[in-house]
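Continuing the series of single-chain predictions for the mutant panel. This is the parent chain; the variants come on the following pages.
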Amino acid sequence: MAEVAAIAGISRTTAYRYFPDKEALLHAALPEAGAGSLLGEDPPSDVHARLARTLDAHFEFIRTWEPQLRAALRLSLTPGTSRPTLRGGRAIAWYRDALSPLESAQPGCDTAALAVRLRSVAGIEPYVWLRDVAGLPPGQAFDVMRGNALAVLCAALAGQ
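Parent structure:
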């Protein structure tokens, strides 16, 4: 909070008047991401194309809001704190939307579980690991996540 106040040219007291804690500040800094879909206008019907479009939009969201997403992740990892509302699983809904054609095309496919699997390989957590631990530049990190997500989809479609 002190760093944010200094950058904004205000006192810490003033900053706390508007933002009582880090979570409130993150809510103000991160755009409303309640969109149920990242597919945009005229979404494709093919599930692979839908996933690719969703990945593109999700990765652009990460590129744009990386500092805020990292801060929300850091806050969620602080011992003794409840899960911040910014960590509510909105990306899982984006992936479920991408997978929706499978509900009629492959009725036995658990799209909810598949969306969770996809989110586990494509999001801020794997991105941070790929960047900070594996040392990959951003483009390569996104390429790895894309490859992993497509492999998860292919494995699910093959019944694995």
